[in-house]
């Protein structure tokens, strides 16, 4: 028994996904020698405190500080490659549209890391004069209440009462906290608020 071959044009084609992830990288070459030189040991110290504030329903931050407890703070040297990445990120990045701007693996290798204490404090010792970029991701949970309808009761006069029970809800957030810091003189202590 012979079967007819299906013509190629009739084969099923997977439609292109509209939510496809777009990734961008800086176009200029990364100068590893410059980055290494900027991260060489110096005599200055960067002392900081990392925190955020909870966002309200409109996305505006306010209220009490939420200190970064045991999060990683990354320090990157601000090189020409980094500047292009930062400008490209401002121009192209959109989490909602699934557009992301990344540093190359080679560039990301040239970084320092610190872990915050329970008060959000962190330190980068032995820094040279220069401009640096600090970044961390601070997760927190926001709690709130709402009234959940539980039923309706009727009295003997035909009146009606709706009953509600107060319930708690929680929403997890993660804020990207960032700041530029400049060390002007060898031996100085530079204080920074990372929020």
Short description, anyone?
The protein is mainly beta.
Number of strands: 10
Low-confidence stretches: none
Mean pLDDT score: 89
Strand composition percent: over 45%
* Estimated radius of gyration: 26 Å
Helix content: 10-25%
Q: Write down the overall geometry.
A: elongated
What is the H-and-E element order?
A: EHEEEHEHEEEEE
What is the terminal-to-terminal distance?
A: 73 Å
Secondary-structure-based class equals: mainly beta
Q: Report the biggest beta sheet as strand number plus sense, adding barrel if it closes.
A: 4 strands, mixed
Number of helices: 3
Describe what this molecule looks like in 3D:
The strands form 3 sheets. Strands 2, 3, 7 and 10 form a 4-stranded mixed beta sheet that branches. A 4-stranded antiparallel beta sheet has the order 6-4-8-9, with no helix packed on it. The protein is elongated and about 85 Å long. By secondary structure, the chain is mainly beta. The protein has 3 helices and 10 strands. The protein has helices at residues 32-38, 80-92, 105-109, and strands spanning 22-24, 44-55, 61-67, 72-77, 99-101, 112-115, 121-127, 130-154, 160-183, 189-194.
């Amino acid at each position: 028994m012979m079967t007819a071959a299906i013509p190629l044009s009739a084969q099923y084609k997977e439609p292109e996904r509209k939510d496809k992830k777009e990734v961008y990288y800086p176009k200029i070459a990364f100068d590893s020698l410059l980055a290494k030189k900027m991260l060489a040991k110096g005599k200055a110290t960067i002392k900081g405190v990392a925190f955020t504030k909870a966002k309200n329903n409109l996305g505006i931050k306010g209220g009490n500080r939420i200190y970064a407890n045991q999060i990683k703070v990354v320090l990157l040297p601000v090189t020409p490659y980094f500047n292009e990445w930062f400008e490209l990120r401002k121009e192209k990045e959109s989490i909602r549209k699934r557009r992301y701007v990344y540093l190359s693996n080679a560039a990301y290798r040239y970084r320092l890391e610190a872990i915050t204490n329970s008060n959000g404090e962190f330190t980068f010792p032995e820094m040279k004069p220069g401009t640096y970029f600090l970044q961390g991701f601070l997760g927190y949970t926001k709690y709130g209440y709402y009234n959940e309808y539980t039923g309706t009761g009727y009295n003997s006069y035909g009146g009606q009462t709706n009953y509600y029970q107060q319930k708690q809800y929680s929403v997890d957030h993660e804020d990207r906290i960032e700041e530029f810091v400049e060390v002007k003189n060898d031996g100085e202590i530079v204080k920074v608020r990372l929020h």
